[in-house]
Write a structure and sequence with these properties.
The complex is a heterodimer of chains A (about 180) and B (about 250). Chain A has about 180 residues and is mainly beta. Helix content of chain A is about 10%, strand content about 45%. Chain B has about 250 residues and is mainly beta. The chains are: A mainly beta (about 180), B mainly beta (about 250). Chains A and B meet through helix 1, strand 3, strand 6 and strand 7 of A and helix 1 of B.
């Protein structure tokens, strides 16, 4: 009898040890919505219901000191862009600036008569931190969204429109830019 | 997937614990039978979970204590309960949270084991209802952001406390207790828990509930293990009649 009990205790210990190792994998699934990006779509200014591709678009952001960062996209023909938003704290009105350079291939070709067109957009918003889950922790969503285009001598972005003032998902665009 | 694996363990553990019942069922035969009477002790058994002080000593992020008690009602049924207090810090890549509180569990144990002679060991299954009262302190958290375009991830280190939380759960327990010296028992058990209600802190979740243990994202189930030493205070004795085969003359 004593021997049987000893075996059983040993077995229980084995079972418990093998179960323990399964508890470590708390991984945030890709399918869980976390901190969203800002989605911008480009529309045709002459036909307001139609998407219009931007030719050879390059997009760059700025860090907190106003220095240019790496390209988010480089020389791509596209009618939509997805931008990361910077945040410094909850409920603090924050500004992210982006360079949107159209026809960016023209800066590198030999033809002096063509050049790229750089527009800068200012995106303003207020971050709010929301709890997601044990594995993912918190995400930030962005409220009170507004977008302005910095005026220069030849803006290629002619108008902007906010569709949704809250950035809390990545399923639809929040901002429309017309050109 | 891991939930499925765990349920395999629990089921196999159950089968394996119940198996001795069949092996002890005797064949029906016509031999004459006699009875021997053993005195069995009834009383209050008090114990502590030794894993908790050991973990308190070994693990930096855990302190806890649990006392347990059971009272024998009939040959097989025991009134049982546990009382405990725990403080546990859960640290993930994105959260650092300390849960602190106490809990109480009450229910019954049923001894499946048919003891030989005058032995009083237990292989038991039981049921508990548990209540926990606790607080959670969010020590720090990092915003989950798949896009690392802007340098470092953003971390908030200002602690936030969520007080007055409570949870209620039901629990199935399987385990064994063996008398190693007179009135002195060692035991081991596994618990499968299912949350019934809990207070959700505002804009936060319960990562660890004292008594319930780890809260999984995937559902309301939890697990726990106990390693007990306990002492039986005998109050009265009762006869146990055992049928034995008469030796053929």
């Amino acid at each position: 009898m004593k021997q049987i009990i000893t075996y059983k205790i040993l077995l229980i210990v084995l079972i418990i040890i093998s179960t323990w190792s399964c508890e470590r994998d708390d991984i945030c699934s890709d399918a869980t919505p976390t901190t969203p990006h800002l989605i911008i779509r480009f529309y045709d200014v002459t036909a307001p219901e139609e998407f219009k591709q931007v030719r050879q678009l390059t997009v760059r952001g700025f860090d907190e000191n106003g220095n240019e960062l790496l390209d988010i996209i480089t020389r791509t023909n596209t009618d939509s862009i997805v931008l990361p938003l910077r945040f410094e704290g909850e409920n603090i009105s924050t500004l992210s600036r982006f360079i949107l350079e159209k026809d960016s291939d023209f800066t590198e070709d030999d033809d002096d008569t063509t050049e790229s067109n750089i527009d800068i957009i200012n995106v303003n918003y207020v971050p709010e931190f929301q709890y997601v889950s044990r594995a993912c922790g918190y995400k930030s969503i962005f409220n009170d969204l507004s977008v302005t285009v910095e005026p220069d001598t030849g803006n290629w972005i002619l108008s902007s429109q906010i569709i949704n003032t809250t950035v809390d998902n990545e399923t639809s665009a929040q901002v429309i830019l017309r050109h | 997937m891991k939930q499925v694996h765990r349920s395999y363990y629990v089921i196999s553990l159950l089968i394996w614990l119940l198996a001795p019942m069949t092996s002890f069922s005797q064949d029906e035969n016509n031999t004459e039978q006699d009875t021997i009477i053993y005195k069995q002790k009834y009383g209050l058994r008090l114990g502590v979970d030794i894993s908790k002080p050991v973990r308190s000593f070994l693990e930096e992020d855990f302190t806890g204590l649990e006392i347990s008690g059971d009272y024998r009602l009939t040959k097989r049924i025991y009134l049982a309960g546990e009382l405990g207090t725990e403080e546990r810090t859960t640290t993930t890549d994105y959260l650092d949270v300390t849960a602190k509180g106490s809990y109480f569990k009450a229910g019954f144990d049923y001894n499946f084991y048919r003891n030989w002679l005058d032995m009083e060991n237990m292989i038991y299954g039981g049921f508990r209802v548990g209540v926990s009262s606790f607080s959670q302190t969010l020590n720090s958290y990092t915003i989950y952001n798949t896009d690392q375009y802007y340098e470092d991830p953003f971390t908030i280190t200002e602690p936030q406390e969520f007080n007055g939380l409570s949870a209620i759960w039901a629990e199935l327990i399987i385990g064994m207790k063996a008398e190693v010296i007179n009135n002195f028992y060692i035991g081991i058990n596994a618990q499968l828990k299912g949350r019934i209600t809990e207070d959700q802190p505002e804009n936060f979740g319960n990562l660890y509930i004292p008594g319930f243990n780890k809260v999984f994202d995937s559902g309301r189930f939890g697990i726990g293990f106990g390693y007990n030493i306990s002492y039986l205070i005998p109050i009265y004795k009762k006869d146990k009649k055992v049928a034995v085969d008469k030796v053929q003359e």
